[in-house]
Fold this protein.
Amino acid sequence: MTELAPARDRVRRRERAVTSPGTDARRVLQLILAGTWLLDGVLQYQSFMYTGAFGQLIGGTAAGNPGVIARPISWDAALVEQHLVLLNTLFATCQLLLGLGIAYRPTIRAALGASVAWSLAVWWLGEGLGGVLSGGASPVSGAPGAVILYALLAVLLWPTGRPGATAPFAAARAVGAPAARLLWLVLWGSLAYFALTPANRASQALPDMIAGMTGGEPGWVTGLQEHAAALLTGQGLAASIALAVALAVIAAGVFLPPPLARGTLVLALVTAAFIWVFGEALGQILTGGATDPNSAPLLALLALAYWPLATAGPRARRPQADGPPGNDDRPEGKSG
Amino acid sequence: MSTPSWILGIFGAVMLLIAEVSAGQLVMARPWTRRDIAGAGIAVSQLLTGIAMAGILVPGLTTLPDAAWDVAFAAITGWFAWCLWQENRGRGAAAMARGRYAPHLVQSATMLYLFAALTGPITAGSGTSTGSMPGMPGMPAMTGGTPALRAPTLALILALLLIAFTVHDLDRQAGVDGVDGVDGYFQAVGRPPVPAGPALAAAAERLLLSPAVAKGCQVATGVTMAFILIIMI
């Protein structure tokens, strides 16, 4: 019997190969999202998170928010300070499991659904709604809160296709192109608005923000930050206007024909890289005190999810076939 | 306060379990009887990695001096690099990254880095945390700070690579995306049949040599390595 096992395995492998839909563009984006959650999980285990500073960090996000938003944050911060080890370990493990769950095909739906609930809770109770209501939000320092972008990505990368709908880009496959474009417009449009708020357009606001991120960073990051801050000294208003214009162009970009849309998405990727390196100091991961890589990598991931697909349309109309969750639609073809 | 020692203990226990599973796989698959050098090499590296990482995480489980581990992992890294190059010669970087040996190369290189970076002097001010980290051989607990790795940027890059391979391994469908003719670490073809005996033993052998167990070991090792790198940045 056992001698037949290799032959049986080969047959089984061939059968699986026939039915496997393979890895498509959206699956790649899902895997990047999974990796980001995994990174978040291990970051949450850092020593810093097991100090009172973590609770204070959470409590600090209540400042400037309306009472109805701030009170639960203060309650949460007090709870975390009281049961620091237990709760932080729970937080870290949950994020680790979300990452593993998204990467493992049979559990992707459950994990993505849980990640939406988790992200919304953390956005409120851990990030104070990203400073959106307190006037402290800045696109350069992580507005509208990194964690809400996880929820947005989970919705846009949900493993389902809408029958009868065309999919001009991966993010449109779950919610449809109009809704996906609207979400993009709201996100990047709000970032453009935040770039021009009084707190952010002051002449020293941007350089001070960049210079303030150097603490605890390796020398090469500090050098980059200091150079950027020096370059922008006294130019905060001009820089804010330029940034707002770039963000507004990006916001409108997904409504343009594909060649122009690609151009604005490249601009989105470059802007996200600029924000991550100079504004967010690589999410401050190298200081040992980051809970996540901050918003810029997720903005870049979103931009990739809106990249126009060369073979969009007909494939999205195909009927769904049996297959593992996460692959219940056909490969999208190469993007470009 | 530092990352609680019981969390390090849990990760250490997982690594010991992986070492035991790898030892069991080696004994049951007997790869040396059919010159399955690749399978044997991967299982041996997994075994050594499990033992070494358990020692990093839990002080009582330290087995060899750091220098000895460095030599061992330098040899393993070199071997995997050579295997990867041999397997994917002329097929480009993308094929290499998807190759069978790429994750093992990154893992062994991470171990080499970990022991090399741990034995050096502590980089003052490279972490914002307070307290001390138990169980880091060669690393005296730093008053008021967690022992840090030298070249933290390299630690971050390795952690990101490990996470990428972990996610890829988890997504990979057994028998579909894997290497043709390879189940788990070992060549399926030519594997000695399960000897007649208790059904339970046969089932245990099948389980131990299954691709799912190999995948689980890979994923757990990748996560634990990324964990160590990140908490020591």
Summary: Helices of chain B lie at 5-29, 37-57, 66-87, 92-98, 102-118, 152-171, 199-208, 211-231. Chain B touches chain A through 46 residues (CB under 8 Å). The radius of gyration of chain B is 18 Å. Residues 5-231 of chain B form one domain.
